[in-house]
Every structure is written in C-alpha cells, then in structure tokens.
Amino acid sequence: MRLEVDATTIPTDAPESDGTLEWDSTTIVVVRAHDDGQTGIGYTYCDRAAAELVRSTLANCVQEDVRASWLAMNAAVRNTGRPGIASCAISAVDQALWDLKARRLGISLAELLGPAHDGVPIYGSGGFCSYTRDRLQEQLGDWVASGISRVKMKLGRDPERDPARLDAAREAIGDDVELFVDANGAFGPKEALAWAERYALEWGVSWFEEPVSSGDLEGMRFVRDRAPLEVAAGEYAYTPEDVRNIVGCVDVLQLDVTRCLGITGFLDVANAFPVDVSAHCAPAISAHVFCAVNRLRHLEYFHDHVRIERMLFDGVPEPAGGVLRPDRSRPGNGLELKVREVARWAS
Q1: In this structure, is residue 91 part of a structural domain?
Q2: For the chain, how many structural domains are there in total?
Q3: Are residues 234 and 257 located together in one domain of the fold?
C-alpha cells in the first residue's frame, strides 16, 4: 500500500477572526491511500507539519487491517506527542484507510460504519468577529433562507461590540431560528456566566460554545452548571482521554473526526458516553461518520470548510432542508480529489 499526501493552503474569502484568533488562510492536508487499483481519501485541517509526519512516520505503519494500522500509528508517535498535529495526521490516514475499505466492498462509507441515521441536521457556522454588520446579516440570513434553522456566530473579541452584533444577527434571522454563539475560550468563568445570562435573556441564544478555554475543565463546569443555556465544547479533544475528561463539563460534546484520531478513534468514544454529540466541521466526511452516532445532535456547516471542500473535491454532498445526507450511491466517502486544483493552490 502506498500513501500520497498533499498540504494545500487556501486564502479565506475575507479576513476572519473569532474571540481569540485571527487568520487569512486555511490549510487542508489530504492523504490518498493507493492499493490494488483503488484509492481511499482522508483529510484534516491542520498545519503542513502533519503532511511531513505522514510521510516520515505514519506511512511505515500502514498495513492491510485498519485497526492494526491505527494502533501502529498511535504507537509510532509516542515520543512525538499524540495530541495535536500527530492526532490530525493519524486521522487523515485512518479516514483514507476506511474509505479504501468501503470502496473495495463497493459500498458507501456510511453503510460500512453502520448508520443509525440517514442524514445529519446542520447549523450554519461563521459570523466572524471581523465581519461587517452587512456581511454578518447576509451570511446568517442566506443560511436561513436555504432552510437551515440554526446559525452560529463568533463573539468575545470585543465584548462591548457584541450586543449590537447580536441585535443584527437576530434581526437577520428572525425570532424562530436558533441562535448559537462561540467565544473560542475568550472569557473567564464568571465573565462567561454573566454574558451567558444576557445572551439567553436578551437574544434567545440557546448554545454557548467554549465560553472558557476548553482546557479549563473546572471553569467549563462552573458555567455549565449555572448558565441558562447549553454549554458545548470538545473540538480540541484529540484522544480518548481528552473526551473522557470533558464529558462531565458540557451539555453537548463536540467531536471532530479529522482530529479525534480518525474514524477508528472516533467510533471508540462517540457512543461511549451518555451525552449528545455534535459534529465539529469538515462536513463532507462528517456526514458519513456522524450518521453512526446514536445520540446525534447536529453538524457544524462551517463556512471555511464548506468552501474548501467544494473547491478541492468532486462528490461533496449538498444540504437539503437543513440536513446533510451522504450520497450512498457512491462508494466510500464519495469524494474524488481535484488534483489540478490542489496543484494550483500548492504552487
């Protein structure tokens, strides 16, 4: 079996920021596993260093059995450091191996994983702190017009500006659409709780993501236990231990299949705890994998990732009625890499 890996950095369509970070590009690392005339595809959103780790270390661990490969990759990065870049690299390779297996069998990845659902409800995600009022309203309003009944915006970078931004958001989406907010860890626990009470009372916000740093488990639990809305986190859970630690601190657990040790690691934890699970980003692959989650809540239809996946892959599923359904008529994850497009952005 041979692995091929590409790291492609694509500029955002406008400068973006959240409560704690600013960026103007996004890097996607795509792994292709070639064997016996078939090719499986996996990917992660990560630094280019993940591609080098695939080439230098993980390619030597791949074997016929997917779980055996996963175990070998985990063992190989012991001294490298498993959370972070190594987990993302493992995730991309593991996805490619599962995709290859499904293609060999001639079935969709969703069918191979054993679906509990035929599709995943989505919420529109963007609303960056860097957006103008007009852009914020346009983006959120377009999602609602397309049939999506939940939208999420970023806040916390300049908290005193947020009430006006929330007014604009609610004006654009109306009173019947669920409004989510994401601080990306911008607040301390008491400050987050004070804002949570205002968000819920004044703007009908029902979901507060990462009110404090996801590493502050006690602070997360403090807000969760007192806030009049749901608290969510988990996108930076890279290992099963990370997931175990955060479960008791949130109302809804977020998991990212491009970070959480791939499909193999994800399947080990996603149905293991009595908590609802929401898919974090990467909608083209998440649509397949999260259909296998028993307590599925929804999937983050993230502006950057939707744009990049449409640019780089053929076969990307499109939402209908606020639900993203994997195309089960196509083998594997249904994606085909646009090699020329990858080369264009790599140059």
Answers
A1: yes
A2: 2
A3: yes
In this structure, what CATH number is given to the domain that contains residue 33? 3.30.390.10
Identify whether residues 119 and 101 lie together within a single domain. Answer: no
Same domain, yes or no: 56 and 183: no
Q: How far apart are CA 181 and CA 84, in angstroms?
A: 25
Extended beta strands in the chain, E state: 2-17, 22-35, 38-45, 120-126, 150-154, 178-182, 205-209, 230-233, 252-255, 276-279, 296-302, 313-314, 323-324, 336-337
* Structural tokens at position 330: 């196509």
The answer to whether 212 touches 220, Cβ cutoff 8 Å, is yes
* pTM to 2 decimal places: 0.96
> Is position 330 within any domain?
no
Nearest-angstrom CA–CA distance, 269 and 189? 27
Q: List the one residue out of 303, 288, 306, 345 whose CA is nearest residue 41.
A: 288
Please state, in angstroms and rounded to a whole number, the distance separating the CA atoms of residues 337 and 42: 10
Q: Which residues on adjacent β-strands are paired with residue 255?
A: 279
Where on the phi/psi map is residue 31: left (φ > 0), alpha (ψ -120 to 50), or beta? beta
Residues 122 and 10 in one domain: no
Cα 293 from Cα 304, distance rounded (Å): 24
Query: pLDDT by residue (tens digit) across 2-60?
Result: 999 999 999 999 999 999 999 999 999 999 999 999 999 999 999 999 999 999 999 99
Q: Can you tell me whether residue 4 is helix, strand or coil?
A: strand
Side-chain-facing half-sphere of 54: CA atoms under 13 Å: 30
* Greater model confidence, 240 or 302: 302
Whether residues 128 and 259 fall in one domain: yes
Q: What is the extent of the structural domain holding 12? A: 2-106+339-346
Contact 284, 335 (CB under 8 A): yes
Q: Do the beta carbons of residue 21 and residue 235 sit within 8 Å? A: no
pLDDT in tens, 116-157: 999 999 999 999 999 999 999 999 999 999 999 999 999 999
Q: How confident is the model at residue 347 (pLDDT cuts 50, 70, 90)?
A: low
